[in-house]
Amino acid sequence: QKEVEQDPGPLSVPEGAIVSLNCTYSNSAFQYFMWYRQYSRKGPELLMYTYSSGNKEDGRFTAQVDKSSKYISLFIRDSQPSDSATYLCAMSYGGSNYKLTFGKGTLLTVNP
Amino acid sequence: GAVVSQHPSRVICKSGTSVKIECRSLDFQATTMFWYRQFPKQSLMLMATSNEGSKATYEQGVEKDKFLINHASLTLSTLTVTSAHPEDSSFYICSARRDSYGTDTQYFGPGTRLTVL
């Protein structure tokens, strides 16, 4: 079983839709959770950073962490064509081990 | 947000030559930087962890003599691909660890596309 599982998609939605992206993980020792957005041929851009269970909102984006279920989500409201990208979940153990473990990424296309 | 730059953004070289890629954290100091490699439609593969003032730590299967890493200052790490061959063609991305204001995460550079002919 992989440490982090993420459905690679592709996911195609109409403009204005609510998008739900998810990752599950197997190791309860993960403490920090991130979502990155990567446009084609570019480096990943940090979207959301959380370290506790619950919701965190930033504009149209909401990150949700459920440590008891080992499940994290990213919601995008009022999706725009400019949101079309690959979304990567990532997590780390924290402390002295700050390497990131990534999901495979989900390719999202928002159609105008 | 934190800014990380990479140079060059794209490089084409002949087989057997060496290529140096620079990674700079522009608005924060980074004692730790990371080098990743990414193949088309795949996730990032960590190659090595670069610590300022000490030797890099390489992931299993990554040849340290082929991928030389130097982290000479708190804002600069370099990756040199020595004696490059076509199989080294890839997208190389660096990141810098920022540990401040209750956040401990990595900020990524824009990437360098290496093509070895």
| Residues in helices of chain A, as a percent range | under 10%
- Share of helix among residues of chain B? under 10%
Assign the structural class of chain A, choosing from mainly alpha, mainly beta, alpha/beta, alpha+beta, or little secondary structure: mainly beta
Strand share of the residues of chain B?
over 45%
Q: From N to C, what is the helix and strand string of chain B?
A: EEEEEEEEEEE
Could you state the order of secondary-structure elements of chain A as H and E?
Answer: EEEEEEEEEEE
What gross morphology of chain B would you assign? globular
Walk me through the structure:
The complex is a heterodimer of chains A (112) and B (117). In chain A, strands 2, 4, 5, 9, 10 and 11 form a 6-stranded mixed β-sheet that branches. A 5-stranded antiparallel β-sheet of chain A has the order 1-3-8-7-6, with no helix packed on it. Chain A is built from no helices and 11 strands. Chain A is 0% helix and 54% strand. Chain B has strands at residues 4-7, 10-13, 19-25, 32-38, 44-51, 57-58, 67-73, 76-81, 90-100, 103-108, 112-116. In chain B, strands 2, 4, 5, 6, 9, 10 and 11 form a 7-stranded mixed β-sheet that branches. The model of chain B has no long low-confidence stretch (mean pLDDT 92). Classes of the chains: A mainly beta (112), B mainly beta (117). The A-B interface holds A 32, 34, 36, 41-46, 49, 88, 92, 94, 98-100, 102-105 and B 1, 4, 6, 32, 34, 42-44, 46, 49, 91, 93, 95, 97, 99, 103-111, 113.
